[in-house]
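In response to a reviewer's request, we include the raw inputs and outputs for one of the modeled complexes. The two entities were modeled together in a single run.
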Amino acid sequence: MSAASGWDRATEAHKPPAEIPSPEEVEVPQALRQEIEGHMALYPDPTSAALPALAAAQRLHGWCSPQAIEQVACVMQVTPASLEAVATFYDMLETKPVGRHSVYVCTNISCSLRGADALFEAIRDAAAGDADLNVRPFECLGACDIAPMASVDGVYVGPLDIEDVPALLEDLRAGRPVLPDKQLARMLVADPLANAREYPSHPVQTADRGDSG
Amino acid sequence: MSAVTAERRMLLLADIDEPGLATREVYERRGGYQALRKALTMEPDQVLAELEASGLRGRGGAGFAMGKKVSFLPKGAARKYLVCNADESEPGTFKDRELMQKSPHMLIEGIAIATYAAGIAEAFIYIRGEYVLQADTLDRALAEVRDAGYVGEDVLGSGHSFSLVVHRGAGAYICGEETGLLDSLEGKRGNPRLKPPFPAINGLYQGPTLINNVETLSTVPAIVKMGGESYAAIGTETSKGTKVVSISGHVQRPGNYEIELGTCSREIIYGLAGGPPEGHEVKCWFPGGSSAPVLTAEDLYVPYDFDSLAKAGSMLGSGAIIVVDDSTPILDVALKVAKFYRHESCGKCTPCREGTNWTVKMLERIAAGEATPMDLDIMASVCSNIIGNCLCVLGDAMAMPIGSMIAKFRDELEQTIERARLRAEGALAHELASDVALDVQKVLF
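The model returned the following structure tokens for the whole complex.
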């Protein structure tokens, strides 16, 4: 009996499962090997390095490709299947080829109350056809204070208007810092009592977090 | 500003935007690492006694007494672990993000003190992978204090040694659940484990493990500095201290605010965050992240603390208030929430995996005009069949808010069902009519 329909990759049931790759047979880029071994050394059990190792391989290969997984498996001396099981579990690990720039648009409750669904559609439409961009709706990114927001290659920006979309994509494509004035790193805490003094090095004040609703 | 807010005490957010606070130099200039020095002159049991006296309850969601948690760890030479839960993924919550990004040394100092009190030699910060800036900041801060001898072998000449590693996750809400987090930290899928045994006995690598939230550990230096009893004087009888509350959704000034536990909820939502935009009223609010049963405008005067919110039928959770005003249909809120939990269910337990999926499908039926009021009862029964029947509370975390929305907004949902049904029937009738017209055309021409 073959595997259930839809599980295309599991239908090769006649094949034996891939074993732990032999270091003689798999070529691993030196920098990647060193990075993974560095992570493995940090933990009492080196298997703990699976997530940082897969993340490193993804940075190199663009996604957790079979080749990327084989290289990680070779360095960590685990089966590729155990790493595939991990890779398919986590949202940030890509199991299909994607554009090299990631744009995660938060569409969870707090952002959606402030227009995130329309924002996501606007970004997705504006990025349509650009193979370099990986635009995804994402679960709560933990920045509801700048809702609606997005994480662009890991940089949080918000609150975003639909009008910000062209500049956002332009900055991203040009390799510039994305919407510098809207980056979370420059935001002061909202609580007016938190800061006893004024700190001029932070140009963005909490009052600029945008009008509500 | 009202008198109540003027008296607010800042333990965690005080001068948090001071330039350079993320560096050891500025942090120490402000009295940083003094609590660690003080703790190292005390016996570990004395430090533990201060933590117990403070009454500090976990700030991650469950609200379990931190001192008690530490005391559950077996004494002696076993290889024990501390894991700081920095996987802040509860929708609406962003307090740990601000603390780690701006005051990373406060967390590191808290971890150093906790490892000393509990006799732990290996510590980890499990931070969600999306928090790139915060993880980089922690890594930098950690490198600084490692060089200075605050973390590592023989901390400040005290004989206490511990290692600390920042471990980045890769995007999974369930890894905020403590046993899911442990599996993830061991390099596996983040599936929760059966409890008991609890992590204090059998946790990371099967060893005794203390798991605490970022805010909880960040509060430890303040407790050691001021003494457990002084800390316990803040707040209410059973909810001690201050709490950083994340407010978002339909409020005019969303963000993090530090409040004394027991503050009137209305004071937080309206006084601090400015309430909904003009012309709108609070329709419902989640007091503790999207997993908390919703409260309504009638509950705005409930004191914001663990027990008052529990008594009102909800929970303080992670301390994240999400405000929904009267411009939003409750169906939209329910659908958003249910879809999130469906996406994040790890799939291990049937009631959660299937229950979240069917709840979404039934809510979509309402939107499509295919539901009857009976579906609300089925949905409520699905919710009650999830609660308490899974390894972890992810399914409960959907069932509780959805169940509360069905109970509290039943009239609105029934109207929505009826309107959507009429709309769908109208569309169907229109379609049939045009089909007939088409046939007539065929006959005529």
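As requested, we also summarize the result in words. Chain B touches chain A through 83 residues (CB under 8 Å). Residues 410-444 of chain B form the longest helix (35 residues).
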